[in-house]
């Protein structure tokens, strides 16, 4: 799965209102980091021709100069819709959350469902796939005592939320809001199913009776 | 040196074919002693809630001290995060001399690290603000990401004692 940094569209005036630490922007508003340490990974799987939109971000930037120049370059490389270009349409946006604690996932679900209901985003389906348990056995003692072992396990719980019939700008805004409030220790994977027009050269043959 | 071992002979409870086999157990190796505190004679050892619950109670009555996505299914960068956590804990307990009353809790959200804990009010508030800024600044340079400290204070360390053992 390619890790694609998706550049979200946000109004430019929000950038100035970003919270700052040490007087600098914490995260340029247009960016969404796609490293694992940050808690979520975004993958865009398009059902039609995939649009390559990879702008590889520096993982962590530090000095004010880097922040400002980085954000400027993203402004120029952003994929805001041109005037007159129609918005994208998504038949399905699937959000999969993974975490170690079901209580955390459940509370996040109440947050997301209430946000969706307030913003008129239809949350169609909520799935709780089976948890994944990774178990392994180690020797309990440093030296000998082969018959005494210790077993560890790590459980990963899944939560899938499916939103239907969204536009591109709604999706970007809604996902940005959801991801900003993603709890620590919860990972997110987003799958968007986009609707495209059939290309011009694909036509029903003249023999087909409509 | 011989290890002290006791051998038991078990009867039909273990085997169906009628043969007797011995089970050798050593005294030290079959016990678990991680994260458990020994009871004192006069019940003088104070334990916080975290210390009072053993590691087997994690995810039941306890929660984790560091929250990140590295050990999830298909999580990444686990060993580097562990080493970072060890460094952060040593740094915090060393900078705040004998002031931390709870464990250092490390939460990773997006590209931020949030460090939480309970601190005693032994030093003046101005010194605390300086230490908070110092820790945030230096840790952010070391770990190359924004670091936020979210500390709670408590007047006396007896306020976090859950029980005496």
TrEMBL record, chain A:
State the GO CC annotations.
mitochondrial small ribosomal subunit
Location of the Small ribosomal subunit protein uS10 domain? 94-191
Q: Which domain of life does this protein belong to? A: Eukaryota
- Keyword Ligase in record: no
Q: Does the keyword Acyltransferase apply?
A: no
Localization per record: Mitochondrion
Q: According to its UniProt record, where is this protein mainly located?
A: mitochondrion
Q: Which UniProt keywords apply?
A: Mitochondrion, Ribonucleoprotein, Ribosomal protein
Classification via InterPro entries: Ribosomal_uS10_dom, Ribosomal_uS10_dom_sf, Ribosomal_uS10m
Query: What family does the database annotate?
Result: Belongs to the universal ribosomal protein uS10 family.
Q: What is this protein called?
A: Small ribosomal subunit protein uS10m
UniProtKB/TrEMBL annotation, chain B:
Q: Does the keyword Ribonucleoprotein apply?
A: yes
Annotated keywords: Mitochondrion, Ribonucleoprotein, Ribosomal protein, Transit peptide
Which Pfam families does this chain map to? MRP-S24
Q: Say if the entry is tagged with keyword Transit peptide.
A: yes
- Organism source for this protein? Cherax quadricarinatus
Q: Which InterPro entries match?
A: Ribosomal_uS3m
Similarity comment: Belongs to the universal ribosomal protein uS3 family.
Q: Name one GO cellular component term.
A: ribosome
Q: What protein name is recorded for this chain?
A: Mitochondrial ribosomal protein S24
**UniProt record, GO biological process:** translation
Where found? Mitochondrion
């Amino acid at each position: 799965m390619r890790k694609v940094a998706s550049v979200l569209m946000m109004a430019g005036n929000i950038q100035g209102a970003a919270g700052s630490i040490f007087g600098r922007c914490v995260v340029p508003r247009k960016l969404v980091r796609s490293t694992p340490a940050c808690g979520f990974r975004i993958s865009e799987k398009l059902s039609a021709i995939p649009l390559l939109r990879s702008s590889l971000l520096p993982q962590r930037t530090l000095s004010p100069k880097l922040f400002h120049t980085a954000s400027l370059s993203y402004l120029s490389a952003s994929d805001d819709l041109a005037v007159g270009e129609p918005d994208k349409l998504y038949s399905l946006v699937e959000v999969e959350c993974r975490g170690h604690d079901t209580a955390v996932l459940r509370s996040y679900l109440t947050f997301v469902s209430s946000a969706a209901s307030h913003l008129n985003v239809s949350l169609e389906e909520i799935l709780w796939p089976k948890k994944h348990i990774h178990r392994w056995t180690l020797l309990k003692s440093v030296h000998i005592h082969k018959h005494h072992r210790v077993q560890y396990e790590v459980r990963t719980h899944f939560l899938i939320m499916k939103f239907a019939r969204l536009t591109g700008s709604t999706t970007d805004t809604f996902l940005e809001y959801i991801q900003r409030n993603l709890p620590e220790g919860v990972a997110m994977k987003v799958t968007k199913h986009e609707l495209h027009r059939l290309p011009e050269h694909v036509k029903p043959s003249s023999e087909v009776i409509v | 040196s011989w290890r002290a071992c006791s051998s038991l002979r078990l009867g039909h409870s273990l085997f169906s074919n009628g043969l007797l086999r011995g089970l050798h157990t050593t005294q030290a190796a079959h016990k678990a002693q991680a994260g458990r505190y020994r009871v004192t004679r006069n019940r003088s050892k104070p334990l916080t809630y975290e210390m009072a619950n053993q590691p087997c109670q994690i995810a039941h009555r306890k929660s984790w001290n560091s929250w990140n996505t590295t050990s999830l299914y298909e999580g990444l960068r686990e060993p580097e995060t562990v080493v970072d956590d060890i460094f952060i804990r040593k740094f915090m307990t060393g900078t705040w001399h004998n002031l931390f009353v709870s464990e250092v809790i490390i939460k990773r959200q997006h590209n931020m690290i949030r460090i939480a804990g309970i601190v005693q009010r032994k030093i003046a508030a101005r010194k605390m603000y300086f230490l908070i800024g110092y820790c945030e600044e230096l840790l952010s340079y070391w770990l190359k990401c924004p670091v936020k400290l979210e500390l709670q204070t408590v007047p006396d360390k007896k306020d976090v004692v859950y029980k005496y053992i």
